[in-house]
Amino acid sequence: MKAKTNNVAAAILAGGSNSRMGGLNKAFIRINGVPVIKIALGLLKKSFKEIIIVTNSPHNFKSYQKEAIITEDLIKDAGPLGGIHSALIKTSKRGVFFVACDMPFLHNALINRLIKHFNRLGCEAVVPRINSLIEPMHAVYRSSLGDRLGSFLRMSSDYSIKSFLRGKDVEYLDLEDNPLNRRIFKNLNTPDDLKKAIGAGWK
Predict the structure, then answer these.
(1) What's the rounded Cα separation, in Å, for the pair 42 and 203?
(2) CA within 20 to 30 Å of 173's CA: 85, 97, 111, 121, which one?
(3) If residue 112 lies in a helix (H) or strand (E), which one and from where to where?
(4) Which are the contacts of 135, defined by CB distance < 8 A and separation ≥ 6?
(5) Which structural domain, as residue segments, surrounds residue 44?
(6) If DSSP codes are grouped into helix, strand and coil, which group holds residue 108?
(7) Could you tell me if residue 3 is inside a domain?
(8) What is the pTM (predicted TM-score) of this model?
(9) Among 183, 12, 167, 174, which Cα is nearest to 102's?
């Protein structure tokens, strides 16, 4: 069994309005009877000693307090960047691997590759890329970015992750454009996405 990483935490971003899912909190969408958040935690626990859930409704995640650190956005209404900022400030580790709560097809092999690149390169972020498409919500960020990200959020009205990463020491992990890799980054944004995910199976 592969040893868990000591210097990188994992963070699940469980914010968002979930409007396209009819207001249902996407973290609790069930696939084959299992909440997506539980699927993610089960996989991440294989690689990480520290897991953080960032949410604007911490009371809904009380049952996961033994498995993860539950924290809120320190800067409200800043989208995914607000969640990234909170986890970077909260963690005790050198870096954080981030994933959105509505990605049920996580793959430990890719996560471990990202961490390996992060540790080897010593950069501020490692982001996977397929052709020209990047996935900054399935990436590793150095914890020291936390304070700069906080300043960025307080001074800027542009809360896109790409805007924040501009000018930072970012390395990209280029992946083959194939169905497996594209599936890993699949989000459950709508009820139709959920139906397709259930039909495809998630194991």
Answers:
(1) 12
(2) 85
(3) helix 108-121
(4) 127, 128, 129, 185
(5) 8-200
(6) helix
(7) no
(8) 0.90
(9) 12
